[in-house]
Amino acid sequence: MRALVRPAQYLALAAYIAFLGFPLLWLVSASLKSSAELNSLTVSLIPQDVRWDNFGQALERQGLVRSASNSLVVALVSTALVVLLALPAAYALARFRGALRALGTGWILVSQVFPVILVILPLFLILRTVGLTDSLLGLTLVHTTYTLPFALWMLQGYVAAIPTDLEEAGAMDGANRASVLRRIVFPLLMPGVVATAMFSFVSSWNEFFFALVLLQSPENYTLPITLKMFIGGEGKVALGPLAAGSVLAAIPSIVFFSIMQKRLTGGLLSGAVKG
Amino acid sequence: MHTRGASLAAGLTAGVLLLAACSGGADDGGDAAPEAGSDEPITLEFQSLSDQPAAIDATESIVSAWNADNPDVQVEIVPAGWDGIYDKLITQFNGGAAPDIIHYEAASIVPFARDGYLADLSELMSDEFVADVPEGVLETVTVDDQVIAYPTELQTYMVFANRGLLEAAGVEVPTGDTMTWDELQEIAAATTAEGRYGMGWGLKSPTATFMAMAPEFGGRFFEGTGADAELVVDEGELAIPGIVAEMKAAGTVDPVSLTQSGSEVLAAFYAGQVAMTVQGSFQAANIATDAPGGFDWVVLPPLEGPEGAGQAANPQTLSVNIDSEHVEESAEFLEFFTQAENLAALNQADALIPATTSAQELMAQNLSGQPGWDVILSSGQYLTDAPYLFVDAYAQWKDTVATPAFQRFIAGETDSAGLAAELQAGWDEITA
């Protein structure tokens, strides 16, 4: 009986992975099917006739590679900015008590209330005044501003979970404030930083509306804008090329996550302090 | 210590910003107009929504031909997608960043005209073009006596049929100029058999279909324009929903299809599970591409009700930004763009119906021998005006009242009287 437990566990794990990965598998399958097969009643994960031309059409059309490159630059830079700005702010919010803290947390909550459609016009006018519409720099700043409050909220929770006893112990051993932050707090905060970076990256990578309104030139379009252009008027959708484009678009995200997930380890604080 | 940390953070931030600045193509577009006395050509920005590869090629080809012949007035295509274009245009107009030439559709461009964002093209549009466009279609782009766009591409709702299934059921495939709704129901009944329905009709979002086809029964839905418009729900407006309900009760329409989009129904059509399907005319191109080998299909004549075969037109449009410094040059380009051979090429690429009679005739010549297109192009002559285009609260009423009310009616949750009351009550609430 016990011999069956481990295989059963692996089986359950494989089923769970298949469940999670099924949408991606289906997307890959759709990207390899002909238009006729996609529009038939036959439902199969395995394409009847593997067609690679969807990828060719996706790459030829609308500058998909250029858009992916734009998205990558915007997502990486805004992620770096968000982490850089959120890290000290989150520490301050979590550690220092007072009116400013209440004000800061209140601001974070209030900033999440406004729908995007409400702020887009004034935002557009401000960016136009400073010459940042139709610019990847402008979009990067908008993504940073848009993501920052929630990232701050996330990181604050991670900081609050680090016992102050550890910092005090470091100080008792002669470490100054900078050393405490660098040698004790920051390493323990790394999973939170990674989680925040992932959240920021995905938010920026997938963001559609700001990019749609702010970017005017095709050479500046980001990936969500380009992919949406596969969906036409009158309900026309180039399903195969859209699926192929989406598969290609998912690759940078998958690579980014596979690099980052190794650092997303929890439980570092287990047993750090007594009681 | 704190100062050093802050400096480090500030330095990193500045570095990242610089990196972003380097990576951005921060060309703000700006005004493409040359300085007075400059020899530089004028550049017109043309925001195009062409989405099909062939249509993109056709648009680029037309623009290239113009640019070659007009070195002083160059046109630059700015591709955009249909999804979210309304929000983009609102922001562009309010922010003073709209392109010179705007591609859209009549149903959505009218509010921009009412808000004063579009140039009046009445004096700039040639008499030849005006004479070439059916009166009803021209009315769809006329707002407060001002022509605000060149209509370019149209669709009609057509019945596509599986010829083999019709013939196997002993039905003679209709070939006249038009076909009555009674004939349609008879064919649907005759072709309904075990495991097969006579009709598959994608009515997931039924309002557009019902609004477009209502004129066949004298239905107009609205009287008046703008904020003064009044909803009218009478026999003519309820006729087609009523036919759908009758066919559902008779078991001649696939009930599943009524919850699907038009495109989703095509799979059942290809598989022979439905003998006929009502679709936008552009689906002829998809059927030709996607139907299995040997699938014998035919487009039946345009449907005709007691008031004729008229369908409300909602053409794609090309308008000029009223704030453009080159309204006249833009209109000249649009005159070129809408020449018969250009419109025929574009519509052929998009599988739509040209807005001008001359382009329809040219396209009919080009496509002679291809199944269905003679009938589809002939349906263009029946297109008529669409009162709903000029109603301020139409979009809100359509999304929040009409579509759910029609869906409930199709599902059998309410009868005709209940549908009429629901449509009217919702309208009254919105316009109160």
From TrEMBL, chain A:
GO terms for biological process: transmembrane transport. The keyword Transport applies. The chain crosses the membrane at residues 12-32, 72-94, 106-126, 146-163, 184-205, 237-259. One of its GO terms (cellular component) is plasma membrane. Residues 68-260 form the ABC transmembrane type-1 domain. Keywords: Cell membrane, Membrane, Transmembrane, Transmembrane helix, Transport. It is a multi-pass membrane protein. It is found in: Cell membrane. Gene3D superfamilies: MetI-like (1.10.3720.10). Belongs to the binding-protein-dependent transport system permease family. This is Sugar ABC transporter permease.
TrEMBL record, chain B:
Coiled coil: none annotated. SUPFAM superfamilies: Periplasmic binding protein-like II. Keywords: Signal. It comes from the Bacteria. PROSITE patterns: PROKAR_LIPOPROTEIN (PS51257). The keyword Zinc does not apply. Residues 1-26 form the signal peptide. PANTHER family: ABC TRANSPORTER SUBSTRATE-BINDING PROTEIN, ARABINOSE-BINDING PROTEIN-RELATED. This is Sugar ABC transporter substrate-binding protein.
